[in-house]
Specification:
This protein is of the alpha/beta class. The protein is about 30% helix and about 25% strand.
């Protein structure tokens, strides 16, 4: 199955049903309207010389044109290459990496796009908001209704190139093919029990593959409706969820926490909401419990990667009564087989921690990085670089990125142990543990705690409060209170950046 074929099938079955809605501008497309827009985009790109396998970069804020640009590229067999606008300063590097034929962008990115395009030989710039110097006006091209070529119909072709989050290193372009990604999305939809009556709502960046496999493809596979949003705020986001009749919120933990706090303030969750779906990082069990107890709604945790085009594990849209099981993600999906391997590639028994590996469909590879691809897919398995376990029930529990382990005086610390203990303390919104090089210890553990609005935190008091809750001697731990944490464009805490920060270095040198 081809990704864009999901839209065509939807239009054949229910042409007048809402397909996409841009919350910020209150503009939408029916399924029939989405097909028309896709064909216009495909015709425009083909007229500009874009052919199968060419890259069409989308460098824009969330909106309808973003989704249509992706559909149009897929329709003619091109690759939608997505770069988050937060990478504007490195845009030349991204263009040089995947060498696009065309870049589609929003007007406020003109200077960065023009410079990067000139440096890398991009043939055409298309501005979503009208003509600019050296750029063609996308609205005029779409209005011309130029004929689209026949659909190449190649399910094995690469359709989607998005960059890894870069939490521990430089982002790489993960390439997803049509068929395994659609298969994964259908399995995700079945796990979440999506129906055509559902209304999905995704306020995080469309440049993330998480949006593709959670907010876009699974609802399209059942003919449901999809909302995208650029400007999220706690109060405004809650209002939009209620106004749009959203039944599923696809977000990261900070946004899900916003909804919880606003629901508590108003005394009820958004009226139609039946589940939250979390991605972009581990979900604190405390947040799952709060959704369950305060809103009587399941907070379903997903665990995936840009390299996967799906999820390693996914929970069920059910309330979990057992607090002891809230740390689990959920079982693998039917299209994937998950194995926990030891250092010798031996499969480990239930309950033992090792590297999480996956077979059954994943990326075609990293763009133009054969060595990195071979390393990540050695033996026909996707090597996630994550450490975790499968329990006796077959549920996945994520413990840590291998690169994020902190070795203190010869003992390995799992950052999540300290982070979740800190987030269980009153007033802590987010927490992150990193290791900083230290002559005596090897690495000095430094934890950062960000307060909730209006809260006041003390690092020493937090350290004392969690001492009995973690399996480590906390004597070498430094706890630093910060007003904000650096984030990747996909909503994860940027731990590599945090470990290099002046605050981390000062904390590591303190007595």
């Amino acid at each position: 199955m081809l990704m864009h074929r999901l839209v065509t099938l939807g239009a054949e079955r229910h042409p007048d049903r809402p397909a996409f809605h841009w919350v910020d501008r209150d503009r939408g497309l029916t399924y029939a309207g989405a097909v028309d827009a896709m064909e216009r985009m495909a015709g425009a790109l083909h007229d500009l010389g874009v052919r199968k396998g060419d890259r069409v970069t989308v460098f824009a804020h969330n909106g309808l044109d973003y989704v249509v640009a992706m559909l149009g590229a897929w329709r003619i067999g091109a690759i939608a290459a997505l770069v988050n606008v937060k990478f504007a300063d490195e845009l030349t590097d991204y263009f040089a990496d995947h060498t696009p034929s065309v870049v589609i962008y929003t007007h406020d990115m003109e200077a960065q796009v023009a410079a990067a395009a000139a440096a890398t030989g991009v043939r055409h710039r298309l501005c979503m908001d009208g003509a600019q110097d050296g750029a063609l006006p996308l609205p005029d091209l779409l209005a011309a209704a130029l004929p689209a070529p026949p659909d190449p119909g190649d399910e094995s072709a690469i359709a989607h190139l998005s960059y890894t989050s870069g939490t521990t290193g430089r982002p790489k372009g993960a390439c997803l093919a049509h068929e395994p990604t659609v298969r994964a999305a259908r399995c995700i939809g079945e796990r979440l029990r999506l129906r055509s009556s559902d209304v999905s709502f995704g306020p995080s960046a469309l440049s993330s593959s998480y949006q593709l496999v959670a907010n876009l493809l699974p609802p399209l596979a059942v003919g449901a409706s999809i909302n995208v949003m650029r400007f999220w705020t706690q109060e405004g986001g809650y209002d939009a969820l209620a106004r749009r009749g959203a039944t599923m919120l696809v977000a990261n933990p900070p946004i899900l926490d916003d909804v919880l706090r606003e629901a508590r303030r108003r005394g009820a969750p958004p009226p139609a909401l039946r589940l939250g779906l979390s991605g972009g990082g581990p979900v604190p069990p405390l947040l799952k419990a709060a959704w369950r107890d305060a809103m009587r709604l399941p907070l379903v945790e997903s665990y995936g990667q840009s390299e996967l085009g799906g999820f390693v594990g996914l929970g069920y849209p059910e309330l979990e009564p057992d607090d002891g099981k809230l740390g689990r993600v959920g079982p693998p999906l039917p299209d994937k087989e998950v194995a926990i391997l030891g250092p010798d590639d031996r499969a480990l028994p239930a309950g033992e921690i090792g590297e999480i590996t996956v077979t059954g469909g994943f990326m075609a590879g990293y763009w133009d990085r054969a060595e990195k691809t071979q390393e990540a897919t050695r033996g026909g398995r996707l090597r996630t670089g994550d450490l975790g376990l499968l329990d006796a029930d077959g549920h996945v529990t994520l413990r840590s990125r291998r690169a994020e382990l902190v070795e203190v005086a010869g003992r390995l610390w799992y950052p999540r142990d300290v982070e979740e203990a800190l987030m269980a303390e009153a007033g802590v919104a987010q927490a992150a543990l990193v290791g900083v090089a230290h002559d005596a210890l090897g690495q000095r553990p430094v934890a950062f705690a960000m307060p909730q609005p209006g809260a006041s935190l003390d690092g020493s008091a937090l350290k004392a409060a969690i001492a009995a809750c973690v399996p480590y001697d906390l004597a070498p731990l430094a706890v630093v209170v910060v007003s904000e944490l650096p984030m990747t464009p996909t909503g994860k805490i940027a731990k590599a950046e945090l470990a290099r920060s002046d605050a981390a270095l000062r904390a590591a040198e303190a007595p």
